Amino acid sequence: MLPRDTVSLSPVAATRPAAPVADPRQQAFTRALAGLVGQSLSADVMTRLPDGSFVVRVNDMAARMQLPQGAQVGAQVPLTLVALAPRPTFQVQTAQGTAAFAEAGPPLPDGAHPQSSPLAYLEGKEAAALARTAALLAGARSLAQVPGGAADGAGASLSAAGKVLGDVIAAAQKAETQASAALGRTPLLGAPSDDAGAIAKALHDGLGKSGLFYESHVAEWAQGTRPRADLAAEPQARGMPPPTDPDTAQFINLQLNAHEQGRVAWQGQLWPGREMAWDVERDAGGRNGNNGEDPPALWQSSLRLAFGALGQVAARVVLSGDQLHIRLDAPDATIKTLLDAHRARLADALDAAGTPLTTLAIHDHGQG
Fold this sequence. Notes:
By secondary structure, this protein is α+β, with helices and mostly antiparallel strands.
């Protein structure tokens, strides 16, 4: 069956060690940068360490960083702070004008081996993907910071990243065909399967690696709760056209809609030859007027599949707290009768999975 929380992906422990939380020098360095996320800074390169990293001075604090090839002692390197946890992470401009990302930490104690406190450094396609992400996140922040009293735009201004975000939305609206779902380029499973666990995992991974949640995954990586290898499986990390390219703009628009509406859609093949359209929607609901408590979140998941023997069958699954409701739409009365005959089998399978069926309604396409 479908997992209860299809959209929220479980955090995976990072394989990259981080500086201990109790390290007072790391804490002091991080505190010195608090409130500077998104701001441009400069680093004075003071010395080069035996492992190839550098000691730099940032915001009047000494720090150890990996720098792009060709960095020279005595030079200044422009930086942009993009994250504070698990270590402060900076976007660094290379001599070729491309972006790289580097973590920073306090200089090593006397006698410590450089490998005892490794620092991550990214460049190339992976760094370019993170640069686009940082720009879009910065744009979203700038839009959110427009003063509430400036409804007519007076006194409000947008950063360059915010303007890029506006250009992206405009490009998406001008597209001839509006994308309504993320597209799966390859089947989720290599062959037909009746293994419910394998199908559930394939659906979970397919949606998670669709790119719709890439920015939140980058944030998790920056916080040390997601390994970098996870990001490489998403389309943004494999390289995408500029944000104002129509296809890219439409994909970003899908991400914005998912954030605003709490709904995501995916289209592709469950396995070779088996086309599938899948929607997942979350409705947090309002306040309960009877006791003032928040009602349980309402999850709705819709699947449309075409089978050789059954034709096109649609399923709508609604999960509210512990209550599970399912509606099946069959192509005709004959298939409806066949599905009716297997009601007990479905209920037993759901009981065994720990999610008892509350209601099951089966219709043919001619019914309301």
